[in-house]
Amino acid sequence: MKFSILVEVQLLEGISDPAGATIERALPVLGYRGISDVSVGKTIRFTLEATDLSHAKELSEQICSSFLTNPVIEESTITIEEVS
Amino acid sequence: MDVAEAVSSLGASSKLLWHGDENIHGVDSIVIPGGFAHGDYLRPGAIARFSPVMKAVTQFALEGGPVVGICNGFQVLTEAGLLPGALQKNRGLKFVCEPATLRVETTESILTNKAAVGGNLHIPINHFEGNYTCNKETLKELQEENRIVLRYVNNPNGSIDDIAGVCNKNRNVVGLMPHPERACNELLGSTDGQVLFQSLLAA
Lengths: 84, 203
What we know:
The complex is a heterodimer. In chain A, strands 2-1-3 form a three-stranded antiparallel sheet, with helices on one face. Chain A is 30% helix and 33% strand. Chain A has two helices and three strands, in the order βαβαβ. Chain A is an alpha+beta fold. By secondary structure, chain B is α+β, with helices and mostly antiparallel strands. Chain B has a single domain (2-202), classed as 3-Layer(aba) Sandwich (Rossmann fold). The two termini of chain B are 21 Å apart. The A-B interface holds A 14-16, 18-19, 22, 67-68, 70, 72-73 and B 42-43, 46, 50, 78-79, 84-86, 88-93, 131, 133-136, 158.
């Protein structure tokens, strides 16, 4: 079976986010006010072959914790969809 | 190559290790240099830490062998879990390439055993992701165990507690963002990097 995997990586709370802070500082310059908590992350998509949904979940969690994120500064959420 | 030249100028011999090689060829100490391995994609050091040579480097480090990571090498060592914390993008998303003044905080490390505590070293920095970060517990541990090896006198990148370099619990693995190999010759404007390599050679 094939699964489409979406990984969204965000910085852990309390870890400084220089990209988010820079965007937040720029917004008022463009006339946008009242915007706070800007946070910048990244998304990673891939297609995975697995025996079933729980296998796909297990594999993608493994890839995520061992490689796609650095648990010292990042956390991630994984969305899995079966590809028909 | 700059590291090889720096240690040669101090009378030691060096060997270049290939990242795709699984062997460290019996060296006495290892320096992982800077250099944006794998384009810094995903995260700096995230891919390099799976290089075949890293298994042997990790084994060497865990057995007490002296290992230094400079710049990208520091990032590789944190990604490999040999050093705590991580290196984030610089404050203000600024690439910094300038001489920095560092304060030696401890002589109890393989990189500073010949330096003087409180002494200032003028050594260049050249990085985009050198903003050292870690959680509060780790920072407290580093402070209490005197494992912050070097601090910036004027923090150039937003690093927590002005950290420029740290060591592991056994003090045989050190990571630093500044480039001591670029401060080992009068022609380059400073020879303050020499004392760090002399320390490593004596370790």
